[in-house]
Amino acid sequence: MELWFTEDQTRDVRISCRVKKVLFSGRSQFQEVAVYDTDEYGRLLALDNIIQTNIWDEFIYHESLTHVGLNTHPNPKKVLLIGGGDGGSVREIVKHKEIEKIVHVEIDQMVIDVAKEFFPELSSGFSDPRVEIIVDDGIKHVQENKNTYDVIMVDSPDPIGPAVGLYGDEFYRNVAGALKEDGLLVAQTESPFFNRDLISRVNATMKNIFPVVRMFLGIVPTYPGGAWTFTVGSKKYDPLEVETDKLPDLNTKWYSPQMHRSVFTLPPIFRELVKE
Description:
The chain is an alpha/beta fold. Helix content is about 25%, strand content about 30%.
C-alpha cells in the first residue's frame, strides 16, 4: 500500500509526495508535528499538515531570510530570530563571525527537539556558544525587550493558528521598538501568487513604521507557487546601497554577493503589490 503526504496549499490547490516512512508524529501544545521520509524531498517537516522545510530545498529559504539582512547592516552584533525551530536560519546566522549574540525565540519545544533528532543538517547551529534558545512567544519577547537588537528576523509559519499575530500592525511596531536606532527587520512574507492581499497589507504597514522598506524574492519549489517573498524594514540602511564587492563568501548554495541586489528586482505583477 502506498503512503502519500498531501498539503492543501489553498482550498483549490494541493501538493502531494510519496512517503517512504513516517519518522515522527506528535501533538504539541500548539500544533501537529510530523516528519516524513519522502522519495522526492528527503526528510520533510510538516506543522498542522503544512510543509515547513525539507532537506531538498531548505537552503534557499534559510539563506534568503538571513544573509540579505545581515549583509545590509554594517555591524550586526546582537540578532534576534523569532520562529524557525527547525534550525536552518540559525545555521546560516552563525556563519557571520562578527555577530556576538544570537537570541532564538521559538514557541514550540517539540519543533526544536524534532529538528535536533531528524534534521542535524539544519540544527547544527544550535550548538554555537553565541546562540541562546528561549522557548517563548516571540510577540511577547519583542514587547519586553526595547532598543536591544541590531537585526530581527521573523521565520514564521503561514498566518494561521499561533502565527497569526506575527503579521499584524502591533507586532511590527513592537519589532521596531525592540530594534536599536539603526536596526532592521527581515520577515518572510508568503507567496506573491497566493497571498497577494497579505503582502500588500504587510508592505503598507511596514511603510508606516520604517523609512526603508524593500521586498525581495526567493524561489522555494515546495512552497505554494514556487516564488516566495521576504520583506526588509529598516530604520537606516538600504539593502540596495550595499557595496557588494566587499561582502564575504559565506559558503552558501543559493545566496551570493553578486545576487544581493538582483533579488530586489521585481517583475511588474509583483511590483503592483508594493506599489513600486
